[in-house]
Amino acid sequence: MADFHQEPQITTLHALYEAFDKENYLSNLERKLEDHARHTHMSLLLPSLYSEMGNAGVLDRIIERIAEVRYLKSVVVALGGAPEEAQFRAAQAYFGQLASPEREVRIIWIDGPRIQDLLAQIAEREIPTGERGKGQSVWVTLGYLFARDQASVIALHDCDIVTYSRTMLARLIEPVANPNNDFQFCKGYYARISPTERSMKGRVTRLFVTPFVDTLSCIMCQQGLPELQRFFDYHRSFKYPLAGEFCFTSDLARGLNIAYDWGLEVATLSQVYDQLTRRQVAQIDLAPNYEHKHQELSPNDTNKGLHRMVVDIAKFYLTYMRSHGVPLDDSYVDMLLHTYYQNALKYVRKYSYDSDVNDLHYDLYEEESAASHFRGFLWDAWMQSKGPQEAKLIPSWNRVAYTFPQIYERLLEAVEADNAQP
Length: 422
Hints:
Distance between the termini: 52 Å
Strand order of the largest sheet: 1-11-6-9-5-2-3-4
Number of helices: 15
Order of helices and strands: EHEHEHEHHEHEEEHHEHEHEHHHEHH
Number of strands: 12
CATH topology: Spore Coat Polysaccharide Biosynthesis Protein SpsA, Chain A
Largest sheet: 8 strands, mixed
Radius of gyration: 21 Å
CATH class: Alpha Beta
């Protein structure tokens, strides 16, 4: 059963329902959402690679569960990795299972010629559109939702969740959709335990982001930088900052810059920090456990796996510090990475105690080795971020629409033309 500890800066919504009748809880929760849906248009955004359609037993289950709910007015799929029209049509038929008289489904063909032409038109106006990947796909799809101007609440989650359930989806959406709440942004969190290996996962969160942000907060305090300390304390308040599941209002989303690399999640938290008061932000326990695909460490390749993930996240934080007046240089970053590493080793011990009392397998050497690699990855991030580098952010749709007033109309036309039956 979950605890009921609250963080100072944001509201934490716990899974206290697990102590009672879970089926009855889900029934009541979905009934509340159906009531909210009479006045609030809720949309689900699914970033999906074409290859995930072949992930037997995972995406199929997700589609089956979503099809059972009645409160979603629309589902919009950000389809990546599908350069051929035959692949797009296959995805259109596959995700079309979600359509009903009450629910519309649209596939955004990111690799299609119409969307690519629009991206080129935006770039001609000197507006960066990023690089192909999840961040860009989410950004384009948000633009389509804004062009429709119907959804007031937008939820987003990945398509590789092995442990997906209707409860997870409903809990993700309810805090923002509930008109009695002040929340405009809600971030999901959960445990990451492999049921087959009986071990902790989520290494980048556990062994890099948490101890690194913790370290930065302490250093900002020591150096008399209270605003930066509050910023890092805010990030530290999130139990799973790298979770890909969150829900927000469309009003908020229109003004967010979107990262197009592995810094997407932490950059989104930072954008929310700049635009909302803390009482408008929540995190919610979505599930007793969460299982999806795992990335390799890739210690020798900065473009793959956890190596690239850590580098992109670290680059975001380092760039943020420099843009807020911290004069980083080699010696300063050298101090950061060594201080981080000593802090990470303390967390390794804490995780070992937690694993031991829960009868989980825990390889102390492997965990310490991962932290050591992450220390090196942090230096890689610094070497890549030197000079006049900026965070890899695509401008908000408010910014794009200001410069390119016809964009919504053209984006709507492109998506509807793609989705028309051949």
